[in-house]
Amino acid sequence: MTLGSFTGVLVPALTPFKADLSPDRERFLAHLKWLLRQGADGLAIFGTTSEANSMSVEEKIELLDYVIAGGIPPARLMPGTGCCALTDSVRLTRHAAQQKCGGVLMLPPFFYKGVSDAGLFANFSEVIQRVGDSALKVYLYHIPPQTSTPITLNLIGMLLKAYRGTVIGLKDSSGDWNNTAAVLKEFPEFDVFPGSELFLLQGMRAGGQGCITATGNVNPAGIRKVFEQWQTPQADALQAGIDRVRKAIQAYPMVPALKRIIAHFNHDAEWAQVRPPLVRLPEEKWTSLLPELAEAGLGGAAAA
Amino acid sequence: MTLGSFTGVLVPALTPFKADLSPDRERFLAHLKWLLRQGADGLAIFGTTSEANSMSVEEKIELLDYVIAGGIPPARLMPGTGCCALTDSVRLTRHAAQQKCGGVLMLPPFFYKGVSDAGLFANFSEVIQRVGDSALKVYLYHIPPQTSTPITLNLIGMLLKAYRGTVIGLKDSSGDWNNTAAVLKEFPEFDVFPGSELFLLQGMRAGGQGCITATGNVNPAGIRKVFEQWQTPQADALQAGIDRVRKAIQAYPMVPALKRIIAHFNHDAEWAQVRPPLVRLPEEKWTSLLPELAEAGLGGAAAA
Description:
- The structure is a homodimer.
- By secondary structure, the first copy, chain A, is α/β, with parallel strands linked by helices.
- Chain A is built from 12 helices and 7 strands.
- The first copy, chain A, has a 4-stranded parallel beta sheet with strand order 3-4-5-6. A 3-stranded parallel beta sheet of chain A has the order 2-1-7.
- The longest helix of chain A is centred in the last third of the chain and has 16 residues, at 235-250.
- The interface between A and B is large, with 39 and 39 residues.
């Protein structure tokens, strides 16, 4: 059972930047189209991997409009729209809803620490009420390593009670399987996506909907195959294969490494650009990553 | 010696909100005027205490323009202009510079964790270069409890080497005197403001410039007196007095408590409003805080 339009492998798409650090919308659109051709079920643009918090609301709105105008079906888009500022979250969420995006992925306001579930509830509640669109589908974004502000079981319960049918799922980037399992157990009707393919098979077996994973930017077809075949005898072997690729990459700074991989396979050096405060992958790290990728089985497939 | 126009007691001014959660610019202007009348040397608007990260760039620009039009001298303003997104930081910093603010207080981009000094340097460097105003004065904002992204001694050294005369100081909200002392020792020419009046006297004796402190919103005159008399025999007794007020307040959630105090002394219940994810101070906490304030010696002075 799924409550929204999303199930399977969603990719928090990387945002390419030009040498002047402005978003490169042409390369972005080409990358999204490649991901869909490779079998990505959805595009979670403006996520952590997208360097979304390094972009203004205006830049995100312009990119969103551009890729939709360029042919990306809005129903396949799950843009990140949760900002620190309530008014920014409202503006971006409203725009995504007006554009008929399949859903939105909402970070909690992440500057303050130790805020209460009541305060987080008030934040999400204000956004939902101000947007006021019955078609809005909200996925909560639990990523305590970055936010230190968890989406607790208690908070999920409060939101489901008040906004059932609108708040319909969770991306769990805690990296903690016990948390994912607890959410699946407590809220079996909730659409839960682990934030890494390391938990894809385990998640499917426990009632999850797939995964939303950074490395989907370079290994979408491999990860999709595990989703397709999770009920077959090959599932564990396929999972072990994508685990090897993931583990090779995640030993490096994730976003710079993914961009450097695409730059390599696309013969397009400009793809390696990041926006501060991130820095490009140093070449000596690339020199060690490249053979590790080959050994893990990731070849020329990663080409947008 | 001070490199900028600021020395003494700066107040990260609270931002009042209306019942509909929009910024209340009239109450904000009245509060800033009261703080100046009480002896505040500067107004560090759009800080943590100001709930600045709960407001959009547009809202901050509108408030800044309004208070300047309303008579607040720009030279007394040190707005917070460091955002997560590079383009937001550039826009807000440029606007503050165009408005001839005495300085700006810059948070590091605070979403990513474990970013390198090189990446943080690139962020500040891009902002300074894009604003391109030789009159710009930047104070760095070190507040690891909120950001988990420290302004290290190494980073300060890198910035001073590249932007001496532009990067001129630091607000140290680490709450760690050893860090403040290390910055003062390593960079004696740097304008250092501890982020709490608990370190005011200690800071002045070690070469600091004063303090930038949340509780300045309700006890500006008391704190200013320590600054005025820090070289007199009464200094330690005066410091002990403001410590008592600070410690009474900081046992409660800081921003909601400060707003509730002003609401009380101003007979203006609307002042207690906060923007999510913060929540108002529960009345039972206020019932315990009020007599503690009286015991600490804070009376009716806190009235805007």
